[in-house]
Amino acid sequence: MRIKRFTADGMAEALSLVRQELGEDAVILTTREFPVRRWFPWKSRKRVEVVAAVDDSPPTPPAAPDRSVAGAGRERLAAVLERPAAPRAASVGPHYPDRREQPMERAGFEEWEPDWRVLIRKLAAEGASPAASLMTRLTARLMAGGMEEKWAQRLAENAVLQIPDEGPWDMEEALARLREVTGRLLADRIGAPIAPDARVLAFIGPTGVGKTTTIAKLAAIQSLDEERKVALVTADTYRIAAVEQLRTYANIIGIPCMVAYTPDEMRRVIEGLQDYDRILIDTAGRNFSQVDHVQHLMSMLKAASPDETYLVLSLAGKGSDMRRTVEALREVPIDKYVFTKVDETESAASAVDLILRAPKPVSYVTTGQSVPDDIAEANVHHFIDRL
After folding, report:
1. Maximum Cα–Cα distance across the chain
2. 48 confidence band (pLDDT: 50, 70, 90)
3. Would you say the C-alpha torsion 51, 90, 169, 186 has a positive or negative sign?
4. What is the pLDDT of residue 103?
5. Which end of the chain is more exposed for a tag (fewer CB within 10 A), N or C?
6. What is the 3-state secondary structure (H, E, C) of the chain?
7. Are β-strands 336-340 and 230-234 bridged in parallel, bridged antiparallel, or unpaired?
């Protein structure tokens, strides 16, 4: 498949360029207008950008029948795609050229041939099939929630394949099937609270995700509800008043709070808390795109030698930011995820993207600022109900 970007002064000119270069079989993927500045900043004109694609690969011989999700439904899909749609205005979601190949086997998907994807999107663009249109609408919805295009397409395609031949072919049914498909994929990755024998727990994450408040909630539950002997340790000595914030929580709960400025101090603090059942460590939230910050974090974790390390991420943030954080921390041994600020977003698509892309068990979600009430063990419905 060839994908090419065209720019012109108007849409008619851009489409003419597409036809000249890619032919009549080209599929329009995205269109947008963008300003072109002139000498004076308050004077500008607009140009049009069109991204188009054409499948010019040679035809492949028919493959042997398979029993995969895609294979089993391919004959029915062909029939579904040929079913005419009721007349309506075409509504096509965004489609951006893929810039990153990711292995799909971990999520239980199998690759479809490129020409099938082109056919689906072309039919959707023409309003020729209710199934194809639903796939495109579901893909756009998931991408708007922060999911990368490849994962969004696979989930949407598999969801629509689950709709019975008799329908109903509407968005409500498609969303129900999407939640079923996603729930099956997430079933063994959601719901992993603190292990009974885990004594030293480290919490890491970028700035502003609610890491310290999350630690306070867990400490209160462990100390007051489960009657364990709990201690807090903070290595977040970079943020103004971070130490005092955790000490305030510790005083309210009635547990000790220690400070570690260096790896040596961290080691001595942990050794001095041997009599405690749970030790919760708050680390500094930093810009982990800087290598020295990651190295400092790793040195503190090595000194603490935690039984479990939790990466705390905010669902209110951008999906791309979460992916960058995970990539920056790829050398850090992370055991579980905690997702915060679930109450501040309408979509959990970015979290689902991350769980499928970089599988780790999800232990807890937080839903507000109240300590210790607004935290719960994660379950599948925290995520699929927000797709």
Report:
1. 76
2. confident
3. positive
4. 41
5. N
6. CEEEEEEECCHHHHHHHHHHHHCCCCEEEEEEEEEEECCCCCCEEEEEEEEEEECCCCCCCCCCCCCCHHHHHHHHHHHHHHCCCCCCCCCCCCCCCCCCCCCCHHHCCCCCCHHHHHHHHHHHHCCCCHHHHHHHHHHHHHHHCCCCHHHHHHHHHHHHHCCCCCCCCCHHHHHHHHHHHHHHHHCCCECCCCCCCCCEEEEECCCCCCHHHHHHHHHHHHHHHCCCCEEEEECCCCCCCHHHHHHHHHHHHCCCEEECCCHHHHHHHHHCCCCCCEEEEECCCCCCCCHHHHHHHHHHHHHHCCCEEEEEEECCCCHHHHHHHHHHCCCCCCCEEEEECHHHCCCCHHHHHHHHHCCCCEEEEECCCCCCCCEEECCCHHHHCCC
7. unpaired
Partnered with residue 150 across adjacent β-strands are none
Average pLDDT of the chain? 79
Query: For residues 142 and 152, what is the distance between their CA atoms, to the nearest angstrom?
Result: 6
What is the Cα–Cα distance from 211 to 291, expressed in whole angstroms?
Answer: 21
Average pLDDT value for residue range 341-359: 90
Q: Calculate ∠ Cα 210-279-288, nearest 5°.
A: 40
| Across 67-71, 133-137, 213-217, 305-309, least confident range | 67-71
Cβ neighbour number for residue 24 with a 10 Å cutoff: 7
Predicted structure pTM score: 0.68
* Backbone torsions φ then ψ of 376, nearest 5 degrees: -150, 155
User: 154-189 pLDDT, tens per residue?
Assistant: 899 889 888 887 778 889 999 999 999 999 999 889
Query: What tens digit of pLDDT does each residue of 267-284 get?
Result: 999 999 999 999 999 998
Give the dihedral sign, CA 16/20/25/31. Answer: negative
How far is CA 336 from each of CA 26, 218, 339, rounded to the nearest angstrom?
Answer: 44, 15, 10
**Phi first, then psi: what are they for 335, rounded to 5°?**
-100, -40
